[in-house]
Structures are given as C-alpha cells and as structure tokens.
Amino acid sequence: MEKLAVTLGRCLLGLYFLMPGISKVTSYQAMLDYMTLHNIPMVDVLLPITTALQILGGLCLIAGLRIKEIALMFAGMTILINLGMHDFWNTYPEGNQGHELQNFVKNLGIFAGLLVMSAGQHLPQWRLAKA
Q1: 3-state SS of the chain: helix, strand, coil percent to 5?
Q2: Does pTM surpass 0.70?
C-alpha cells in the first residue's frame, strides 16, 4: 500500500506541473501579459524556461526519474512563483486578492509535499518507465 500511495502522490505532483506547462504553450501571450502585470523581470527568458521545466520535470516525476532532484527544483520554483505571481498583498486591476491568497496557501501545501519527496531516504516506488 505504501508503494502505491507514494507512486500515486508522485504522479499527481508530476501532473500538477505538467498540465500548467502545457497550458503555457497554448496560452503563451496571456501568460506573458500576466507575468508582466506582476512585474516579473525577464519574462521573455523566464517563461520558456518555466514552461520547459514544468513539462519535462512533470514527465520525470510521473516516470519516476530523478525524483529527489526534480522535487527539490519544483519546491524552489513553487516558492518563487508564489512570491512573484500570487502576491495577494498587492492589488492589481481586475485582480482577486482572495483567489491569490487561496493559490498562495495551496502552493505552500504543494511546497511541503515536494520537500518531503525531495528529502525521502528510501521512497518506495513503482516506476512507470525504466531508466
């Protein structure tokens, strides 16, 4: 049961990053605009990097590859995104501070799960693909 729980959790965390990565490809300009609105620097550089990391890292978590490294990378990324993009303490035109607060707190939970995954000594796992 433990292997199943860890594998399912890892796959769901992978999906949590994979889907937004794919959506950044299909709504690229909207994401550029959103990042610019939140005063994120170097959006032309950071958006493609973030997109690639989310897609490739999400696939790696789902496949069971480099789990600890990917989880730690996503943990750092989640905190940076939280501080820059879900800054509920700032107001924006047509913004929703309650929604941003909800996303901020939700991402803290995701961050916690990623930290646990990155620190696990002997995480039981079923691999979906052999490396």
Answers
A1: 75, 0, 25
A2: yes
